[in-house]
């Protein structure tokens, strides 16, 4: 039942003991969601961190009525609206299920209990925070320094699964363009590829 998340923890912290794992397992709950479900809603406080056992999710914001995708997360990863979860304030984003999902859920109170009584989980929390910080910096630099064409090239190179799993309008907002602009980028790149092989 908890094979994937257990493997994840032991990969991150090989020194984790069975007793340490057991106390975490006792606090995990399992929830299933259908495609289209909204796990975290903009304006509500996020009370859980989620490990994605099965499924595919995306973050998006509604800004002046526009749906702006800000991230995509697949299986064997942790996800949450972290600022809302940690500050106990309303979330600025939505977390939506793009493919039917099974999530392992840990509440805010249970996480605080683990931090207080089990130092190994403080270490784990720090590692996750560091990874999240690196992702935010990389994403910010990408939006500030790269052209839309370069962002799309990065998706092809680093996240090619998004091309099959994410609708074009979501991909377009993720790289900061309209769907029509994304279509032009794709056509331009296809033309380049044809020219190279002629």
UniProtKB/TrEMBL annotation:
Residues 12-80 form the Cyclic nucleotide-binding domain. CDD domains: CAP_ED. SUPFAM superfamilies: cAMP-binding domain-like. InterPro entries: cNMP-bd_CS (IPR018488), cNMP-bd_dom (IPR000595), cNMP-bd_dom_sf (IPR018490), RmlC-like_jellyroll (IPR014710). Pfam families: cNMP_binding. This is Crp/Fnr family transcriptional regulator.
